[in-house]
Here is the input.
Amino acid sequence: MTETATAIAEAVSSGTTRAEAVAEAALARIAAYAAIQPAVWIHRLPEADVLAMARAVDARIAAGEVLPLAGVPFAIKDNIDLAGAPTTAGCPDFAYDPARSAGVVARLIAAGAVPVGKTNLDQFATGLNGTRSPYGAPACVFNRAYVSGGSSSGSAVAVAAGLVPISLGTDTAGSGRVPAAFNGLIGFKPTKGRWSTAGLVPACRSIDCITVFAHDAADAALVDAVVAGHDGDDPWSREKADRALDLSRVGVPLPHQRQFFGDAASERLYARALDRLVAMGAELVAIDLAPLSEAARLLYDGPWVAERTAAIAEFLADHPDSIDPTVRTIVEGGLGRSAVEAFRGIYRLAELKQQADALWGDIDALCLPTAPTIYRLAEMRAAPIALNSNLGLYTNFVNLLDMAAIAVPAGWRGNDTGFGVTLIGPAWTDRALIAMAARWCAGDPYPHPPLDLETKVETVHLAVVGAHLEGMPLHWQLTSRNARHIATTQTAPSYRLYAMADSVPPKPALIHDATGAAIAVEVYELDMAAFGSFVAEVPPPLAIGTVTLADGSTVKGFVAEPRAIVGATDITDLGGWRAFIASKA
Here is the structure.
């Protein structure tokens, strides 16, 4: 990890080091890391330009100026303007050369920060995963088989990999928070209008926020102190009105609302995070997330998707083939929305905001998982919309309901991908949330794992019996791992098959029973690493055990605990899951 922005600024300001030396070191790190992850950057500033800006900072310090961010290198998400560099928003044909820098960028530079380049993103900031860019897909810094999170993918990786101490991202639905979680960072999303969005290519202009990634809360506080405040060039800018908050009562979801999509590690890490809050003196208050979740659905399932369409309507009409297919599918979804739908959505959101605001009478802040799980790059490409939607479960409502938020690290899964929680408060509680984040991170309780991992290439045969069959809802979990179909066959005649009750999506339970019958299965071959990751995600009461096939051979396959058949329907006589599904048609 590179030095913090706070430490760099203090060293440059005191004369302990020079901004030029700091810039040289950052440029060397960036060049070295390009061999590992070339997709971090869309545009890197020429070395001579970066060093010239750094020397100018040294001259200003020598002249007696006080610069809060003296010599601090920073990265800029490439939907935010930097004069002298193109803005692409992740789409080469959209590129333009801005006449001046975005308001936030200009304030950082005025405070002595030195920009080094523009970072990759999900195209037009549409996505929470980081794979939707023609410039490549930045991956999780600590396990590159997994997504980095998006849309601020490159900005998060640039900080997590130690290339720069801070970077600018954006956040409409969680893009400044989800990548922070996956890469073990602080992700601060200010109150709407606290930071200027002048010079930002909009996603949903009425709720967009510019954000910062950092390694510690002190750096987030430092950046906020520099850039927060009204900007007359931004019609969405608001006068700053900080509110105190003691954070003694922290809201958490009702038990049945804590969804992790089968990710047992995330579930365990969230429980530990809540224990940590209690140890810090907080009282946990279970609250109903229903109004927040309904508000979240308005962002993509309601009329707000039309605001994304409005942001690039002309480009969409003139250059549809220049847009990533998944992004185009999402943005085109707004073309059929009517003004009537929009007003109805506004009215419903107002009702939901009343319900959300009432929560603050019972709690001071919320603590939610930043994201319920993480996915591999291959998984995301196999099911790009559904899995991306899962990542926004706990983030999509925040801007719609005018809340402030800061994402903090909360541990690491066994695969070295980060898990995080987000502290969420009412509008203008930004400084209080940052202070709470500082307490949370004191003593570095979640040290980062090593950067590089090795993968063994060994194979395992796996029999699937239900939702993972070809054409079934979870088959993508095999195809995304490059599973190879080996055989369509049957088990030995010693199994019973049950349709489990209340399973989503519907799934069967295979139970060994000498009085049973042969059950249809498909057998796939997976690399050992892919098989291990698959097994880790199998939710109880299902498990992976050993299954005997009709020819007497044994393979790994789905089995079930006894509780799986409580309330279940015995469908053994049908001979397999496909026959059962067909009988329901």
Remarks:
- The chain has two domains: 5-441, 459-584.
- The chain has a mean pLDDT of 95.
